[in-house]
Amino acid sequence: MVSFSRRPRPWLMLSFGVLAQASSTVFVSTPAFLIPLLHTERGLSLAQAGLLASTPTLGLVLTLIAWGALSDRFGERAVIVSGLLLTAVAGFAAMWVSSYLALGALFLVGGMASASPNAASGRVVIGWFPKERRGLAMGIRQMCQPLGVAIAAISVPLLAAAGGIALALVVPTVLCAVSAALCAVGIVDPPRPPRRSAGGDPVHPLARWRPYRETSLLWRIHGVSMLLVVPQFTVSTFGLVWLVTGLGFSSLAAGVVIGVSQFAGAVGRIGVGVLSDRVGSHLRPLRWVSLAAVGVMLLMGAASALGSAAAAVILIVAAIVTVADNGLAYTSVAEIAGPFWAGRALGAQNTGQFLAASLVGPAVGALIGWLGYPAAFALVALCPAVATPLVPRDRELGVVPSEEAVGARARS
């Protein structure tokens, strides 16, 4: 695979990375939008259809760290392209099977392959964008998930109604194949320092850095992100049903509010990225977002208890706040991990978030059924409250070796 130009074009590579991860998200999201077809027309129970829909996400979680390790070893472009091609192959094969067991197996394999952009595309942003622009670039990258879900939500039900499962799978399959081709041509692996230093040391100083052993910073950021996933998925999972059953909104009105909140959340990710560039820190805004998440969850609880007409506005604000941490934490993890560990660290970051997200539905659903919406939302606010003091301070980053510092020492 060769690049169309030896001169790297960061913004073009960012756009290809966005398309790559959005395409993989479309594949992972597609089975969930097939549930109505599987349940009402194909006779599967909701539990069976739900199990089938969960297989890509399971595959994703199983392979995130492995794809990250491969990107550390072989480079980001090879990992992204090969993963997308395997996802497209799984999607194409799934069009032709009649057994639900085989369909689930192919969804699982496709999900395992689709984890590659999650683990590798972030390093492309960190590697090619200067520190003062990484917040903006990573905020744009973090729009991939809502964009992919939106594409699946619009296309899959219509295509499934017109031509069944095979036709519905055309969109994710074609998107993954096209984005693989674009990434093969357009993405250039970010430069890594050589493992052997110019001074003759057998191992480059950055290659000796073991971020999980030598500091608790990565562990803390992983923990913070897992805690902040709880309010994020509480809002996205239960926001619609809260408006309809808890506050008496019509389904149409509630759907409009949720749609606006998703769009606002995507834009908010870019905004907080720009803010982090302006203040010169990803960790300080991460702490601010965590504190704000406490406030919005308490406001949702109060609105639910009082039946406030402002609930729609509060939900939109909550959607913006509770997704704003993703890009900040992701960028911080990559910078702390360094060029030889970034892939594995980003894979671990995503794995922890997905595992935490998988618990939100049953756990928060049980809380709502037991205590009601006001108390459940108030209890969810405890998660960002615990997360806030765990966010590292900027002064703690002094233990992290930087490529700039190592290069300066080598030149002196």
Structure overview:
By secondary structure, this protein is mostly helical. It contains 19 helices and no strands. The protein folds into 2 domains: 10-186, Growth Hormone, Chain: A, CATH 1.20.1250.20; 206-401, MFS general substrate transporter like domains (Growth Hormone, Chain: A), CATH 1.20.1250.20. It has helices spanning 10-33, 35-41, 46-74, 76-94, 100-128, 134-141, 144-168, 170-186, 205-208, 211-214, 217-246, 251-279, 283-306, 311-323, 325-337, 342-371, 373-380, 382-387, 403-411. The protein is globular and about 60 Å long.
Write the layout of secondary structure elements.
Blueprint: H1 10-33, H2 35-41, H3 46-74, H4 76-94, H5 100-128, H6 134-141, H7 144-168, H8 170-186, H9 205-208, H10 211-214, H11 217-246, H12 251-279, H13 283-306, H14 311-323, H15 325-337, H16 342-371, H17 373-380, H18 382-387, H19 403-411
Helix pairs in contact: 1-3, 1-4, 1-5, 1-7, 1-8, 3-4, 3-5, 3-16, 4-5, 4-8, 5-16, 6-12, 6-15, 11-12, 11-13, 11-14, 11-15, 11-16, 12-14, 12-15, 13-14, 13-15, 13-17, 15-16, 16-17
What's the short version?
Helix content is 80%, strand content 0%. It has 412 residues and is an all-alpha fold.
